[in-house]
């Protein structure tokens, strides 16, 4: 078969951008929770218990909540959080008793009814679960977790009734069938920084589902702090539920306007949603609060890169590297900017540094491969694209670039295979324009 190489190379090179800046999810601890060393009051024991609950030390948490209740038998927060621990330990009757006690003290807490509803669900009492979700939603009409879980409970109730009576199940939607609730969510002891993903998580070829059908929201700790909301926001961000992530970061910032990582991660969400000016505003605030944090500059550089403000991006990557010379992401991202500026030797040098620091950083191989291709070394480019795909088999851009290299090497079979894979991945990710452009070229090839 004759492959019109010039058609593929010219059409796709002019129509599709090459530079990709994938940033893997990384976690960098930030000390944001005060340490309580010598508890003496009920409040001290509660604080210690919450900290141990967050760290997963459940028996120690119970001991501290018990002591808080001994010192103050009317301490609602101690009952509520001890109930969460009992639920984690699958001691559901004890958990139920504590939730009931908390609700007696705080009958207007939507989170309390939500937590008790998840407990009723574990016990198979779906009618009571639905009743508690109803109460939570009445108290907080925007409580999306309760709305979603109530729908699941209705589905379960319908199936239970169908099994016992052989009657028609409830008419409510069953698109989230037989989902089980997770154990009460344990929060990290401190918030973490999540650099903004430049490309979304990719779908492997042949696999159409990106993540589980139903994401069960984490259980809220009673009386959540800014750090609690921050960490819940991070969970939603990881699940690509960006509106929920924004809501939680907003709440964290409302409670603690000086929580710099919340601005940083909210900026990452805005970046993902292509709301770049809002992203820049949040990164600026994060820098104002913590001017020595290299990730703040790296992330702002990412947004400047997307806005094609390359000199500003370079300045931010340079600053990030002055603060942290071992930040591999910043080298890779600066290399991508050098590629855009056609300074390919600088790009390859930066990517070399990134790979030396982090040999599993797929974006650095992608960016170096692109530089090698432009420097007239297709074999080195091919080697780098192969490595990038080994590390991240979900990235459509890499299949496209490798396909173009194969076309340049007159390897028609592999070129067509990679271009088809790239088109499939773009289609699955919702980038139909790129997918269609590749398919149009492929459809013009002789069969």
TrEMBL record:
PROSITE patterns: TPR, TPR_REGION. InterPro entries: TPR-like_helical_dom_sf, TPR_rpt, Ycf3. Residues 158-195 are annotated as: Disordered. Residues 409-436 form a coiled coil. TPR repeats lie at residues 42-75, 76-109, 110-143, 226-259, 260-293, 294-327, 328-361, 362-395, 396-429. It comes from the Bacteria. It holds the Pfam family TPR_8. Keywords: Coiled coil, Repeat, TPR repeat. Residues 160-178 have a biased composition (Low complexity). This is Tetratricopeptide repeat protein. The lineage of its organism: Bacteria, Bacillati, Cyanobacteriota, Cyanophyceae, Oscillatoriophycideae.
């Amino acid at each position: 078969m004759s492959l019109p190489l010039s058609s593929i190379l010219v059409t796709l090179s002019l129509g599709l951008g090459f530079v990709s800046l994938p940033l893997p999810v990384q976690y960098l601890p930030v000390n944001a929770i005060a340490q309580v060393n010598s508890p003496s009051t009920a409040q001290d024991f509660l604080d210690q218990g919450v900290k141990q609950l967050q760290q997963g030390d459940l028996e120690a948490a119970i001991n501290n909540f018990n002591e808080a209740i001994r010192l103050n038998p009317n301490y609602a927060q101690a009952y509520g959080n001890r109930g969460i621990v009992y639920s984690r330990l699958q001691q559901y009757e004890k958990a139920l008793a504590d939730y009931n006690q908390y609700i007696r003290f705080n009958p207007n807490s939507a989170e309390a009814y939500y937590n008790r509803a998840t407990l009723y669900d574990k016990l198979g009492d779906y009618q009571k679960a639905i009743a508690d979700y109803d109460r939570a939603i009445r108290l907080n009409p925007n409580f999306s977790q309760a709305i979603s879980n109530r729908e699941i409970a209705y589905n379960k109730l319908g199936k239970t009734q169908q099994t016992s009576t052989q009657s028609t199940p409830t008419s409510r939607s069953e698109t989230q069938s037989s989902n089980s609730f997770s154990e009460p969510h344990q929060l990290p002891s401190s918030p973490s920084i999540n650099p903004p993903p430049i490309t979304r998580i990719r779908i492997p070829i042949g696999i159409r589902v990106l993540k589980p059908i139903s994401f069960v929201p984490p259980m809220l700790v009673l009386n959540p702090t800014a750090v609690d909301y921050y960490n819940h926001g991070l969970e939603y961000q990881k699940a690509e539920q960006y509106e929920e992530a924004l809501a939680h970061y907003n709440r964290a910032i409302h409670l603690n306007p000086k929580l710099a990582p919340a601005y940083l991660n909210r900026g990452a969400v805005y970046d993902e949603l292509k709301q770049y000016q809002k992203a820049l505003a949040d990164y600026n605030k994060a820098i104002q609060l913590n001017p020595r944090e290299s990730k703040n500059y790296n992330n702002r550089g990412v947004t400047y890169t997307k806005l094609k403000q390359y000199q500003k991006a370079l300045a931010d990557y340079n600053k990030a590297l002055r603060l942290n010379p071992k930040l591999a992401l910043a080298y890779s991202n600066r290399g991508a900017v050098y590629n855009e500026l056609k300074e390919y030797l600088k790009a390859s040098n930066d990517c070399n540094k990134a790979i030396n620091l982090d040999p599993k950083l797929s974006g650095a191989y992608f960016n170096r491969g692109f530089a090698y291709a432009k420097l007239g070394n297709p074999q080195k480019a091919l080697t780098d694209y192969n490595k990038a795909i080994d590390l991240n088999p979900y990235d459509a851009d890499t299949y496209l670039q490798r396909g173009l290299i194969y076309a340049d090497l007159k390897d028609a079979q592999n070129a067509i295979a990679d271009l088809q894979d790239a088109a499939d991945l773009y289609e699955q990710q919702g980038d139909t324009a790129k997918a269609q452009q590749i398919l149009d070229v492929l459809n013009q090839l002789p069969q």
